[in-house]
Predict the structure.
Amino acid sequence: MVGLLTDFRSIRDDFPILRSRKVIYFDSAATSLKPTQVIRAVRDYYELFTSNVHRGVHRLSMEASRLYEDAHEEVRKFINARYLDEVVFTSGTTQSLNLVAYMLGLSLNPTDNVVVSIMEHHSNLLPWVTLSKIRGFKLRVVGIKDDYKLDYDELSSLVDRNTKVISITHMSNVLGTLVDVKMVSKIAREVDAFLVVDGAQSVPHIPISVVDLGVDFMAFSGHKMLGPTGIGVLYVRKEVQDSLTPPFTGGGIVDSVKYEGGEFSIKFLNMPWRFEPGTPNIAGAVGLAEAVRYLRKLGMDNVEAYGKDLLSYALSKLSSDELIADKILIYGPRDLGCRGDIIAFNIVDSNPHVVASYLDSYDIAVRSGLHCAHPLHQRIKAESGTVRASLYIYNTKEEIDAMVNALREYVLRFT
Ligand code: PLP
């Protein structure tokens, strides 16, 4: 572990913002910092390759198309998908999840149901709420237990023969809770339901194999895993592709459009292109590919181990400090094996925004509020929100010490 920590410390030099700004950045669950390699790849695309993709026979367009297709291949390897055509680029997790919801939800009927959990980010909740209102199907919501883990017994009891989709987070963006997706996959298979997984928080932090997990769809965002904003992914398992029609259409996704006898007939391109209408975010894709290369070079096992080490250090510091321990409420499972490196907390009788602003006065960036997960905050009885410190590869134990010291001061002065 000592060697591992030394390596991670040296990568801080790759993140220009850590040199140009005085900041302890604990807001990576909102968006991660970007290494020079990613920034350079995006700039190189604009300086050396600017051109549209799949639309020209000139060399620039061919080169840009190759870079764009290579980016799909990099992502395919990263999530251990079997085929390149299973990797669809979108603008981010939100668009990916809306795409799935509209693809699957528009054909559901009032006797059907879709199962989600109370931990969902609004991106994996509101599209289903909207569609359930349009189509009349039931939305069933699985709860969490008091230890902040998913209630798997309730999940089993809510899923039945009328369940057409289970759409669930892999890692809560508030509690850090990891969901046992393999187990959920078994439950989905028993009733022939589609399994959609929101991997926005898990994919950047732990090794992912979509094959091992047994998912049909998996959504995630480039910007939370060192990549640029405006680029994301929807993994679509090969076996489910034939049953799907693109809900959003336009240029660049058809083989042919014919108008005969007053009727239009459309022949779509093969996957994944038929799900990427319009000019895609080419620079974003190139940047995401570089981010993925960066993470693969570090090794996702190492990324996970480093995150766990930081998490364990932070949790033990916060819960054992003689000044803070009695004044802090930490949400999320105690068991490190089933959680990621996100720590949501409150200081008693303190508004989370006030605590976050205090930390900001020490150049410590955390997020405060409801984190686009309002029903979850209702469930954990934190209606005013929580403070969220989210860790990543460029953070250090010294930075955690600095946050603990600032919280000690806060507690001394204001509680
Ligand atoms: N799902 C989860 C669990 C998230 O944490 C987020 C963003 O914070 C999203 C979905 C939405 O991601 P994006 O804003 O990149 O579309």
